[in-house]
Every structure is written in C-alpha cells, then in structure tokens.
Task: structure prediction
Amino acid sequence: MKLGTFEWQGRRFVGLVTPDERHVFDATAAEAAAGEIGLCCLDTMLGLIDSGEAGLDRLRRLWEREGQEARFLRSLADIKFLPPVPEPRQLREAALFPGHICNAPAGMLRLAAELKGAKPSPREFQPLPFVPAVFRDQPVSYFQNRLNVVGHGTQISWPRASHVMDFELEFGVFLSRGGRDIPSAKAGSHIFGYTLYNDLSARDLQLIESQSGFGPGKSKSFDGANVMGPWIVTPDEIPDPYNLAMAVRVNGETWASGTSAGMLHSFEDLIVHYSREETLQAGEFLASGTAAGGTGIEIGRFPGDGDRVELVADHIGILANRLVMGGERQLPEISSCTDDQMAVTSDV
Result:
C-alpha cells in the first residue's frame, strides 16, 4: 500500500493511493461514514501506525468495500501533500552510504576555497581513500528537528543567511512499533514503511558551524529543511529496499543517479543499534543518509533560485519541491574560516 497524509478542501485526512496513482482513497472520511464506534484509527497516520495490524486490516476492508465509491476518491491533482507523518515521534539521521562519506568532505573543502575567492583545480581536493572505521563499526547518527517537516510540492524559502542551496538524496523508514533491545531477527517487523527524504542543507552556513566540532545546526534547521514523501510505501510493495535505483532531477534534468545498494548498515541494523538500552517509539523516522553522489556538494553543482528539485526512487515515487531565495540576503563571512579551523565531517 501507498499511504499518506493529505489535505482536501481544508480538511486533513489519511489516504490510500489508488494503484494507478491518479486518486487517493479518503480513509478518514470512509471510516467516519461507517460510524462504528470505538474502531476509529484512521484520523491520523500516527493513529493508524499505533493501531498495528488491526488498523491496517481495517483499512484494507474499507478499501475493498468502499474503494470504488466516488464520494471517497480525491484526485491527486486536487489535494495538497502533507508529510506522510506530519509530526514524527523522532527523527534520526544516519550516514550509511560509503561513497557519500568519502566524497562529501572534499566537496566541503572545495566550496570553502571557492567562497574565499580561490579557483581550486579538480585534483586539489580528493575523496577520502577509505571509509573511517567509526562509520563501519557502528551506525553514526544525529537527531533532526522532528517538528519541522514538510511534504511533496511544498515551496521552500531558503534562509536569508545562505546562498548555497543543496539537496540530499535519501530515503528512510517509519517504525511500526517500539521496543527496547530489539533482536536482529525481529527488527524487520518494526518497519512500517519507506519514504523519500530530502535533507536540505545550507552549505555556506554549515562551513561556519563545522568549525565548532559539533553537528549541524541552522544549516539544516530552518522551515522546510526536512522534506518527506510523497507517501509511505509498505514493505510488501518493495521487493528489495537495498537495491533501489535512485536519482536527483533539477528542472527535469538528471543531475545524479545511483542506487540504495552498498549501505554500511541496514535499517534493521539501525533498529537494533538505536534500541540498545533505549526504548524506541512507533512513528519514529530513521533516515539513511545520502546516497553516493546525491548532493550538490559532491558533484560541484547547486540548484538556483526557483529550481525544482526531484528525488526519485523505484517503488517509492517522486518527491519534488521548488527552492526559492526570496528576501534580502544576509550572507555570512566565509572568509573568516581557515583551513586549520575547518572541522569538516561527513554529516552532510
């Protein structure tokens, strides 16, 4: 199933996308019309997730019974896409793709030199020759702002303090249920479904923040920075999540293409690791980090004002957003950064 949270005529609802992806079945309205007291779980996506298999079974029965009813079908052209889970219970960002881990630091150093007026040669900053052991030995991650999430089609206003806009080609999973010390053999049963994730990044701000040695701050924390969607795809519809063709398109042109293969750790590994002596909650989102080559910082090419950025993945779909500068720029002084101060990490 492809499940999402949508808005139609000012009303938010949980929907099931029809197989032809032309309509959405309004499960919230269908359940309300059924009028079965005490069974309602389809008013929010978190409500559906919390209801477990019983809620999914109820959704399937509603779809089988009412899925052809015109009164419950909303055209995809007439709805607003919201984040599949408008307020995830947690948002964790990992770094799982070795290509990105090795490529990104060189890109950041190259950008720093360019912003200081230099013209580095193509060979001046090279990728790391190997993945640092810390990334191989265990999942490395940080928390994002779970309260600041937007969906497919949202126009993103870029921070006035930045003029280097960047995208990140990622995907991730929502947890179907929580738990602590979850064993590897059961970790897969905690995956509710998959969605695309664009971890938008203000690279010039990140160059300044990286000098502190802490993780990213305002460079990845502004309105619209965390984009998810277009919907959640349940595991039964994805033959192999670790072999998905993925791509980035800007204004219709393919800028990067790759695959989800070769992750250092699986989502099941993340669940085991995160749950070690820590209780996870249903509705948490675990992000993969960026697929190799899936950022402007790696390919040396950044979107501009008004550009439409699309993330694409087989079996999941297309997550598209337009980036706009807008407003008077209040740009940072990158020239204050020196090479020995620069603590560039792979958390990009």
